[in-house]
Amino acid sequence: MRRAIVLNDLLLVKRILRNNPALVQNPDFDDKSNTSLHLAAKYGFLEIAVRSLKRHGWDSLRAHYKQQEFLILAGHENSGISRNTENETPLMIACENKQIEIGKLLIVQFPMCIPEQNKAGMDAVSTSTAAASFAIIDSLHS
User: Fold this and answer.
1) Phi/psi at 105 (5° precision)
2) Is 136 helix (H, G, I), strand (E, B) or coil?
3) Do 139 and 107 contact (CB within 8 A), yes or no?
4) Superfamily of domain 2-141
5) How is the chain split into domains, by residue range?
6) Is the pTM higher than 0.70?
7) What is the tens place of the pLDDT at every residue in 14-47?
């Protein structure tokens, strides 16, 4: 699953999750327990992060994200915002890696994770500032 995400292979991710839905979060214990969504956020793979936004009536996102995508609608964050061993959310990972589009998506879809802090006491705003992700900072303030 993780290899399919790193390769940005949406078809393979869909096939894996269709056959093994329990793998949706799939934390990697050798990589700070980063989940599938952390990994998609790190590399900016928006198509893998979300699926069929228009079909599910997410009007606030439809204008920006018209793709037929995956992880969020497969239930990745249904049990709460995922965190790695550093207590970082996928939004923080997107901010650290200057992945603007997926950062904006995570802000709109999961605004409750904006003030959450990692082990270093940094939230999404301070993480964006440290990484000079100014486009994400603008989205965090709107």
Assistant:
1) -60, -45
2) helix
3) yes
4) Ankyrin repeat-containing domain (1.25.40.20)
5) 2-141
6) no
7) 888 888 888 778 888 888 888 888 888 888 887 7
